[in-house]
Each structure stands twice: as C-alpha cells, then as structure tokens.
Fold this protein.
Amino acid sequence: MTASEFSVDNNMNNTDVKNNKFEVKEKDIDLEKGRSRKQGRKIPWTKIIIAMLALGVLVASGAIVWVFQDWQTMLQVLAIICVVYIIGFYWRWLYIAARTAPRDFHALYCYIKILLLTKGFTSKGYSMADIFHDMVKKHPKKACFLFEEEIWNFQQVEEYSLRSSAVLKSKGIKRGDTVAVMISNCPEMPAIWLGATRIGAVCPLLNTNQTGNTLLHSINIAKCDAVIYGDEFETAFQEISKELSPSLKLFKFTRRPLNTSPDAVKVVESQNDFTSMLESTNPAPWTKSETEGFNSKLLYIYTSGTTGLPKAAVISPSRMVFMASGVHYLGGLRKTDIIYCPMPLYHSAGGCITMGQAFIFGCTIAIRAKFSASSYFPDCIKYNCTAAHYIGEMCRYVLSSKPSPTDKQHKVRTVYGNGMRPQIWTDFVKRFNIKRVVEFYGATEGNANIVNIDNKAGAIGFVSRIIPAVYPIAILQVDRETGEPVRNSKGLCQLAKPNQPGVFIGKIKPNNPSRAFLGYVDKEASDKKIVRNVFTHGDSAFISGDVLIADEFGYLYFMDRTGDTFRWRGENVSTTEVEASVSRVADQRDAVVYGVEIPNTDGRAGMCGIVDLDGTLDLDKLAKDIAKDVPKYARPIFIRIMTSVDMTGTFKMKKTDLQKEGYNPSVVKDKLFYMDPQLGKYVPLGVEEYEKIISGRVRL
C-alpha cells in the first residue's frame, strides 16, 4: 500500500516529535521501590554570602561618595552599580526576555481576547446552538460546509439542525437526555448534534471504528437514552443488539437529499429511519437553547486517556470555545478563511476545534469523508482553501506522496494541527510552500492548551519565561516509572528545569472556564487525572500523562508518555486493557503488552509477549478473536511466544527488558511473529523479514 493510498483515523493526540529517550538520575529515584524520593531544599549559602557582600559594597560605595561629593552623585553611582550588577548577574535572563517578549505579549493579547469572548457568551447564557445562530444572522447565505460537490450555507445547516430538534423532541428526547451520534464525516453530522443539544440533550460522539465490547462500553458509560447511527454501521449495532438496554432508542440515519415536498413519495426504510422522520417533520421554530448555558454539558468525546477502555470526556460550550478560539487567535486564522478538514468529526480536533471555526467565527469548512494523502492539496485547490487541518501522521503520508504540480498550486496560507515531526517539518513547509505551521497541544479531557504561535520548528507551544503566572501551565519533574510528580520535603511538586523532561500540567480553577477541569463522565477516572498540592497545599492541577521538555526560551517539545500507555497511529493505546483482552482470548495465558519503535514511523507499534508452555496457542484464532473486541490501532503488531514472564514483588509483569530487546530475531531467542497487513494474520518473523521492516520495504 502506497503512502498516497493510506488512510488514517486520528484525533487531537500528539505523535512523538523529539527523540524518545528519557534519562533519570539515580540520585532522584528509588530504583528498588520505583518511585521518587522527596528532596529537601538546601540552603544556598554561597548565593547568600555573595548577596551580602554585594550589599555591603553598595552601601560602602554610597557612603564614600556622599561624604566626598553629594547625595545626588551618590544616587547616580548607586544607579550605575545596580545596572552593572543586574547586567553582570542577570544578562542571560535579560537576553531571553528580549528574545521572547514579542511572543509572550502577543500571546497575552490573544489570551485577553479569548477571555473577553468567553465572558460575553457567559453573560448571555449561550450554548453552541445560540452562538451559531448569531453567525447565521450575520451571513445566512455564506457557505458553511463544502462537501464533495455540495455547498451548505449557514441557513441550511441551521434549518437541518432545527429539523433534528423537532424530530428528537417528538420522540420524547428532553433536556438532560443523552443522544449519541455515530455518523461518518458529512455536513449532517454536526448539524444533527447541534439540533440535539439545542433541546438540552448531551451528545456523545461515537468513534466510527468501534465495534463489539468497545462500542457497547461507549454507549453504556455515557448512559445513552438514544443513538443516531449511520446505516453503514447497522451490522455493528446488530452484533450487540441483545446486550443493549431495551429502553435505548435507536435511529438509523441514511444520507440522502431530503425530499420535503408534501406531494413527494416518502421512502421509509424502517420504523427507526431518522432520515424519513426529518423529511416528514417541519423545522422547529428557533428558540434559545434549553440548556444550563455556557458551562453546561454539550458533548462527550471519547478518549483512551492514560488507562482503560474509551472514556467519555465532557465538553462544554465554554471548553469548545476556548479550544477553537485559542487556535483561531493564536494561530492567525481569519473569519474569511476556507479551512480544509479531513479529520474525523467525532474527535475534538475536527469536531470541536475546526467545527468551532464555523460555529463561532463564521469560517467555511471543507469536509472530507476520509483522509487521502494524494487528495490533500488537490482538495485544497478544488475548494479554494486558505487554511488546512492536519495531524503528524497525515503530514508524513502527504510528504511521502509522489511530487505533483498541485504541491504549490494551492492557496493554503496556514496549516494547523498537532504531531508535525521536526524531522519532516522543514521539508513539508518547503515542498508545499506553507507560510505558517500552527502546532498545538492539548488533551481532550484537559484544561490546558498550548499553541506554537511563531513558527518555531518542532515546538508544540511554549511557557513564558517572563510572565509565567498569566496562563498557569507548568512542566513538573516526574518519576518516569510511576508517572507520579517528584515532590520536595514539603510535599509539593517541583518544576522541571530548562531541558529537563517533565510532565505537563494545567492548574485547575473551577470558576474560570479557561482553567476548569470537566474531566470524564466517570468521576473515578476524572480523579485519577488530578494531582493535588502542586505549588501550594490545597491547590490542584490536571496532569496530562505526557512528558514534555522546555528549552531555555520556554519552547515546549513533546517527548513521550508516562505509565503503561503508548501511541500508535495517533491513538493512545492502553497496555493494561490490551493485555486483559489478549489474555482472555488466549485461555487466560499471561500476556504482556508494550510499545516498540519502527524506524521512520510515528509512535510505537504494539508488541505482545504471550506465555505458551505447551505450544498449543493458535495464532490464527488469536488474531480473529482480538479483532472482535480490540480497535485496529490497539491490536499487537508483533507477537513473542515465551515460556515465562518476570514478575515484580507486587505481581506486575516486567516489560522494560522486553521492550529493550524489541523484535530483533538476532537478539530475541523466543519465536517471533508479525501481523502481515496483506494476509491479515500473524506470520513468522525472521532475519529477512526484520530487515524488510527496518528498511521500510514492509509497512505495518
């Protein structure tokens, strides 16, 4: 399969943009217990003595000048000495401040604009449908969505959403109900959830790749009252129909032009045909949303987080506005932009950030059903796009596609997204003549987003070195083995120093929309993402689970994940959950899962070591069974058949040594297998196959 034919499905997650190595000094880590020691604060006697001597010299100099001259001359001398002292001892800080001040104050200006925008929506008690209605009133005939050969103006999108509101209301959906949407990329998808949220419902956006137990879990965890699903997913729902609640209302959506003429022959495919209901129902009259306002629940967007099955992250109108406006203002987007979006609309990147450009700012969005590397810039030409959305994997595939005259025939001024690898950044910008890359970072469930606002190659954002308290994010020292922050003798967290890896956090302030942490529907899962007693006793922060590094200018670079999680194809893969699934289908054999690197490939591929003492493991059956319950991106690429697995004292399987050995048959003495993408099954991995994988001749 060529890069131009490759299709990916990704979300607002980051791919590795730095060297995935992390060194921990032994003195900071209790290697036997696997956790950090609390470090006491040493008194800096050297600095205190130097300061006292400097103060003494200053006082003595002033006294001498006053005695032999006058007090005005003394003030001049003191001022000169102070300036010399500051330059002599703080010249580096002054240099950094001079270099970064334009960046920091521009970001501060944009941040103030974001706060003013959110303040206005808060005072009006707006939900997203109300914000969108203001855009409809401003330019009803302006193109809102471009899709294939269709043009949907703002008025048409709102009319479709009002029909959805009317249909759902007639079916008993009311304020506080949960209506999930599982529809592929198309203009109707956001219009439907906009209609549902208008009447006070919360809309979980189901990942269209989910099947079996994963899909069932996503429906149950959100406590859905209804699900609207595309007809292409009917088989997936039939497979779990017996396990769904009898009270769950299922509506099947079939994409076709609505025939609303009273004389038209109605096509009703089934009793739950949502499309025919839309055709036979008049749009509801516009009224203000029946919600609790700007800070109410709007969407649930599923993320694997750092552990377990998909979790439903809560998105409020305020959170969506904060994410979208941050990229809009800090990324230099314009209300006149036409933005290309090949991202799945069920994730926060496409569904919140890019949809927000239309709903909040009135931009035009060109939606593609599914990403295609060879069509990326030809589509931008077709729709006359001036901005485009990406993720790191997409950029690599587009760059790997065959050079074409269309590479520079487009009008794309800005591309924004996350995961642009430093190794391809310059080549991508040069080949496709991109003036600005707006790399951003932020977890769907988090409360902090950062943006690269000045084209710094490889950076995912920055922390200010001169006004750090304005936007309270930080990089904390972290114990890589446990994922816990390193604390000092007072029990408080310690900031990572420049060029020292640490975990990214966002300080929580519940009453501030930009700093509130909404977390997940599952409170227990939410609590696991909160770290307490961070800078002062009693405070708290969202902990991302991502290891970043900041240089001396404050630019941030993504490094890796903490804990038992790795990324593959832009998705977070929980090793704990995959281990449980593999062990279950392998007759409860011990299974240990970890991520391994493949050269020139983003993230880490899954590898699973399975204990098979009697040689009876059927790999063909294993592959089929895993495919039923485990999402494609989480399925192990490599299999290692073992006779035993080392355990810790607390009966946790050790995987560090296995990860270091990887899948090199010259190093590993156990039998190795890999998933052949053409055959769809595990085949033996020998030296010849290994060389093909390493060289890129076999793509996994």
Summary: Residues 15 and 602 are 6 Å apart (CA to CA). The domain at 152-292 is CATH 3.40.50.980 (Rossmann fold).
